[in-house]
Amino acid sequence: MIRRLWALSRKELRQLFASPIAYVVLTVYVALTGIYFFQHLVSYNQLLFVYQSEGLTAGGFDQGTVPSQINVLNEVFVPSADDFGLFLLVVLPLVTMRVFAEERANGTDELLLTCGLRPYEVALAKHGVTYFFVLLLLLGSAIYPAVVVLRAGLGLEHLVALYSGQLLYGCAVASLGLACSSFTSSQIVAAVLGYAIPFVLLDFAWLSNTVSESVAAVLREVALLSHYGSFARGVIELRHVVYFAGIAGLGWLASVASLELARAR
Amino acid sequence: MSAKIEAQGVCKRFGKVVALDALSLEIAAGEIFGLIGPNGAGKTTFIRILTGYWLASEGDVRVDGLSVTRQRFQVQARLGYACEQPKLYPDHRVDKFLHMMGELRGLAGAKLRRATDLAVERLGLGPVLHRHIGVLSKGFRQRVALAQAILHEPAVLVVDEPTVGLDPAQQIELRRILVGFKGQHTVVLCTHQLHEAEMVCDRVALLDQGRLAALATADEIRAGGSLEALFLAKVGTHHEEAP
User: Fold this and answer.
1) Which residues of A touch B92 (CB under 8 A)?
2) Do residues B34 and B91 make contact, with C-beta atoms less than 8 angstroms apart?
3) Interface size between A and B, measured as CB pairs under 8 A
4) A10 interaction partners in chain B (CB closer than 8 Å)
5) Residue A7 binned pLDDT confidence (cut-offs 50, 70, 90)
């Protein structure tokens, strides 16, 4: 089974990088995260300058003293994590839309599903390679936060927590996109669904005033954002890890189910 | 290295459309068996059920006594399939593609190398081995599809419309290759080319509207004139395709 998975994964990697989409998405994501991280860093530096200048002129603060809540974690890392999460939501469906839908449209799924491969193996390889691509995206964008961590002495644990959260969140979003792709032969339909479902799941705050408190509490637990925020603050909580792993697992199961359902069409 | 195939009351329905209607037939081990019929007769549907790609609505197909419905993966391990209009990966090189398909079939190491070398030799793929599938002619793509299907020395080889779109020289060459499989594999050949079925097959089944309209051996076909005569007698020329 391992050999088959490895062969399938190599095929998926070859197909992924044979298309310009992977390179465009990588470039755009790394550029966007770099620009926005730099902007937050500039804003933080301006804030420091303002506080320190006030200390000199109005006597409100002494030079060098800044309120404790104004720190690189709150001013740079937390808002950057929100931006990065949104960017993942924007770019990932562009990658996931092709994965199953193209195979079905070209008829190559017939080749795979008649050569003795189990549908769960096909889905496992496709999900695994897409998660690897998410990891590549994150590694590309990690250089700026890594420099800040080293320069600000914030601690490696913040960086590890931030990127663990992003990886889990990215895999969950990718998994939903892959599940959408597995139910259609149209890449456009897969992309639209791949955007719609994670965006709906992102946050249910807009519904909180129209539903009962108990329903609102459940919706809060279901929302992606409720589980994403704490990672940026340097905390890895098991329940959030389980939530994202659960979403990724459900996406994989949906992909397997779609391959089996197609057989009984 | 060949296996018997038995189809018993195989039905396939797509909503209200009946693609296969209680089809029963037996294919002996080692024979080249042709499936002919007009468009929509159920040939490709039967092949997709035989290969485990689709599930029959009713009935079952057995390969070597194994049920396609219940033992799909064991059946697929004994089966090679070259589908219609070869569905391959154009961005793969021929050698890499065959290597990958061998690995997916569970071959490895020296066994895999031997299997790919043999398939390349049998299908004459040497000149295009390092070329991308996307730039190959239809004839060579068809050969690549056949090569991946025979890598694991399957007991049953299923070939769907292998000569569609090929020039006459390629058709003749491909038929020669198919005839070469006789005795080594049970070959199920689905084709629209009546003369091809006549030349290559030991027996031919004529399907019409999902049912078995006729079943004849090569000798019976010759005795009756030609396969075309049989086709005209059973189906006619103004066949309406099922909606």
Assistant:
1) 11, 14
2) no
3) 69
4) 100
5) very high
- Quick one: tokens of B176? 């020669």
The reply to whether residue B87 touches residue A110, judged by beta carbons under 8 angstroms, is yes
Residue B36 in contact with residue B43, Cβ under 8 Å? yes
Task: Tell if the CB–CB gap between A116 and B81 is shorter than 8 Å.
Answer: no
Question: Burial, A135: exposed, middle or buried (Cβ in 10 Å; 0-12, 13-18, 19+)?
Answer: middle
Pairing verdict, β B17-27 and B5-14 = antiparallel
Characterize A153-172 residue by residue with b for buried, 16 or more Cβ atoms within 10 angstroms of its Cβ, and e for exposed.
ebeeebbebbbbbbbbbbbb
Residues 6+ apart with CB under 8 A from A160: A236
A8, A107, A115: residue with CB nearest B105: A115
* Interface contact B87-A106, CB threshold 8 A: yes
The token pair at B115 is: 């299997």
**Structure tokens given for B91:** 């961005």
| Cβ neighbours of B101 in A, within 8 Å | 115
Q: Hey, is A86 helix, strand or coil?
A: helix
**Domain span holding position A182:** 2-263
CB–CB contact A4 B106 (8 Å): yes
Provide the domain count of chain A: 1
Reported as a single tens digit per residue, the pLDDT across A137-196 is 999 888 888 887 777 776 677 788 888 999 999 999 999 999 999 999 999 999 999 999
Residue of A nearest to B51 (CA): A114
Token pair of A233 as six digits: 């603050």
pTM over 0.80: yes
* A248/chain B closest Cα distance in angstroms: 25
Select the residue from A5, A103, A111, A259 to test the B interface by mutation, using most B Cβ atoms within 10 A: A111
Say what the alpha-carbon torsion angle B88, B91, B94, B100 is, to the nearest 10 degrees: -70
Q: What would the 3-class secondary structure string for chain B be?
A: CCCCEEEEEEEEEECCEEEEEEEEEEECCCCEEEEECCCCCCHHHHHHHHCCCCCCCEEEEEECCEECCCCHHHHHHCEEEECCCCCCCCCCEHHHHHHHHHHHCCCCHHHHHHHHHHHHHHHCCHHHCCCEHHHCCHHHHHHHHHHHHHCCCCCEEEEECCCCCCCHHHHHHHHHHHHHCECCEEEEEECCCHHHHHHHCCEEEEEECCEEEEEEEHHHHHHCCCHHHHHHHHCCCCCCCCC
Taking only the tens place, the pLDDT of each residue in B169-185 is 778 877 888 888 887 88
Q: Is the Cβ–Cβ distance between B46 and B69 less than 8 Å?
A: no
Shortest Cα distance, chain A CAs vs residue B68, angstroms: 11
